[in-house]
Amino acid sequence: MLLIRKLRFRIALWCWARVLPALAWRRDLTSLMALTKPAPRVPYRGLAAEYIVRRVKKTTRRPWLMRDRPCLRDGILAMRFLRLAGYEPTLHFGLDKNSVGADTLSAHCWVALNNKIMLNPPTPSMIEILIYARDQLLPPAREASPAAQG
Question: 45 and 85 in contact (C-beta within 8 Å)?
Answer without folding.
Answer: yes
